[in-house]
Design a protein that fits this description.
- This protein has 344 residues and is α/β, with parallel strands linked by helices.
- Helix content is 40%, strand content 28%.
- It has 13 helices and 13 strands.
- The strands form three sheets. It has a six-stranded mixed β-sheet, sandwiched between helices. Strands 11-12-10-13 form a four-stranded antiparallel β-sheet, with helices on one face.
- The longest helix has 19 residues.
C-alpha cells in the first residue's frame, strides 16, 4: 500500500511571553522579553496509507489541530519532515490544497445564500474539475443520497444535518486524495449521525479516499475507524488497531450498582461516602485498586474478568449493602481512551 501521509520526527514549538503584572510589568515587557517555549507537537512519527480511515484523537489542547494545520500547509513544523501525497505541505500549499478536502463541524464551506448546486459549480471551477468528472461525481452522489432535495435548497434554509451532508459531498467533489473531518457529527441527532457515517464509509470505499477523523464522539470512531492514533500533550501515545486498543485492558466490563440506603433521599454526602466505602471494601477484599466512579446515584466499577469475576465483586458488595439494581456493560471505546489519557 502507498503511504499518503508521513510524519518524521515532527515538532512544532510556540514562544509564549511570560507577562509581568501591573503597569510597571507591562513597561518591562517592552524592553525585556521573557519567553516560554511550548511544544504543541513533540517529535511525532507516523504514516497513513492510501484509503485508510484513521481516528486522530486526543483531549483538548493535545496538539490535534496543530497537526492538522501542518498537514494542510497552514503551519510550518519547527523541525522534522511532513509529506502529504508526496508534497511538503507548507512549501506547496496550492498543490496540496488541490489534493485535500476539509469539513469542520457546524462551519460550512458553502455559500450561505445560494442553492447548494451553485456552490458545487463554484467549487468545480475553483478546483478545475472537468465536466465529465463533475457529472460522474453527481451521479455517484445521487446513488448515495437524495441529492435533488439538497441541491435545490439554499444553504441557509437547510437543517444542520442537511448542511453537514452537503459539506461532506462538497469536500469529496474534486476527488481529493485526503479528506479531513473535524467533528463532522457534532450537534446532530442519532439518525443523521448514522446517515453521515454511512455516506463517509461509502465514499471512502468508492473513491479509495484517505479520511482523517478528529472527534470527541467515540461512536463515530467505532463506526468508521479500524485504526486510531492518540495524541496527548503533543506526544503520540497510541497508534494501532482499535480492537487492540480495547484489548489493552483485557476482558473488562463496567459493573453498575445502585446501593440502597436507609434514608429515602440520598444526599450528596451519602453518595460520596458510599463511593469511598466501595473503594475501600474492594481494596481490602481483593488487594487491588479498582477504578470506581459515581454516575448520579449509580456507582460504576471497572472489573477485569481475566483477574476477578464480576460475581465475586457483586457478592462482596452485597455483604455490606442491599442493591436496588445492577447493570453490566461492555467497556466502550470512550472508556478505554480515557484510560489511555490518564495513563492507567
Amino acid at each position: 500500500m502507498k503511504e499518503i501521509i508521513k510524519f518524521t520526527n515532527v515538532t512544532k514549538e510556540y514562544k509564549v511571553l511570560n507577562h509581568r503584572q501591573g503597569v510597571l510589568g507591562g513597561v518591562k515587557d517592552l524592553f525585556s522579553r521573557n519567553y516560554n517555549i511550548i511544544k504543541a507537537v513533540n517529535d511525532i512519527n507516523f504514516s497513513i496509507e492510501k484509503g485508510e480511515i484513521v481516528g486522530y484523537l486526543g483531549p483538548n489542547g493535545a496538539g490535534k489541530s496543530t497537526t492538522i494545520k501542518m498537514m494542510t500547509g497552514v503551519l510550518e513544523p519547527t523541525c522534522g519532515e511532513i509529506l502529504v501525497d508526496g508534497l511538503v505541505p507548507h512549501k506547496k500549499r496550492a498543490e496540496n490544497a488541490q489534493n485535500i478536502g476539509v469539513v469542520f463541524g457546524q462551519r460550512t464551506q458553502l455559500w450561505w445564500a445560494l442553492p447548494a448546486i451553485e456552490s458545487f459549480r463554484i467549487l468545480k471551477d475553483i478546483y478545475m474539475v472537468n465536466d465529465k468528472d463533475y457529472k460522474d461525481m453527481l451521479e455517484l452522489y445521487s446513488s448515495l443520497v437524495d441529492l435533488d432535495i439538497l441541491l435545490k435548497k439554499a444553504v441557509r434554509q437547510m437543517s444542520l444535518g442537511q448542511r453537514t451532508l452537503t459539506d461532506i459531498l462538497a469536500a469529496f467533489l474534486h476527488n481529493p486524495s485526503i479528506v479531513f473531518l473535524d467533528e463532522p457529527t457534532i450537534g446532530l441527532d442519532v439518525s443523521m449521525k448514522s446517515k453521515i457515517r454511512e455516506l463517509v464509509r461509502l465514499l471512502n470505499k468508492e473513491k479509495n479516499t484517505t479520511v482523517i477523523l478528529t472527534t470527541h464522539d467515540m461512536s463515530d470512531v467505532d463506526a468508521l475507524c479500524q485504526r486510531v492514533v492518540i495524541i496527548d500533550k503533543g506526544k503520540k501515545i497510541y497508534d494501532d488497531d482499535i480492537n487492540k486498543l480495547k484489548g489493552l485492558y483485557g476482558n473488562c466490563r463496567n459493573l453498575k450498582v445502585h446501593i440502597e440506603n436507609k434514608v429515602e433521599q440520598q444526599s450528596e454526602d451519602v453518595l460520596k461516602q458510599n463511593l469511598e466505602q466501595v473503594k475501600d471494601i474492594l481494596l481490602r477484599a481483593f488487594h487491588k485498586t479498582f477504578t470506581v466512579v459515581r454516575n448520579n446515584e449509580w456507582i460504576d466499577i471497572l472489573v477485569n474478568e481475566d483477574e476477578i469475576s464480576i460475581i465475586g465483586v457483586l457478592n462482596e458488595i452485597q455483604q455490606h449493602w442491599k442493591l436496588y439494581d445492577i447493570k453490566i456493560q461492555e467497556i466502550s471505546t470512550e472508556d478505554v481512551i480515557k484510560k489511555v489519557y490518564e495513563g492507567v
